[in-house]
Write a structure and sequence with these properties.
This protein is of the alpha+beta class. Helices cover about 40% and strands about 20% of the residues.
Length: about 120
Amino acid sequence: MTKSTNRPAGSGRPPPSRRRRLVRAFLLAVVVFAAAYWFWHRQDAQATMAYAARIACSCHYLAGRDLDSCEADFPEGMGQVILSSDDNDKAVTAWLLLFGNDTARYAEGSGCVLDGWEE
């Protein structure tokens, strides 16, 4: 007598259903789109964060205005930038979701300078 190699109907892993394959394809497309978006817009985002940090630092520490009122100086379309200040270091940091941050510090005689820039 020979052993049968056929499996019973209820055992093993069922093949992925059409719906499951569509969900996987959709999730893969979202990841690819997000990566492409980040790749193509990262330089624009870096410039936006640097601009926001520098302008907000000057507005807050040179003009003496509240940080919230400094956002009114930004051009249209920069509403997604988040600002925070550190009064001990006289620094303003601009955050942009998924892209990181940039910081500008007030230095007597030089004004507000972005971190990482040599004078």
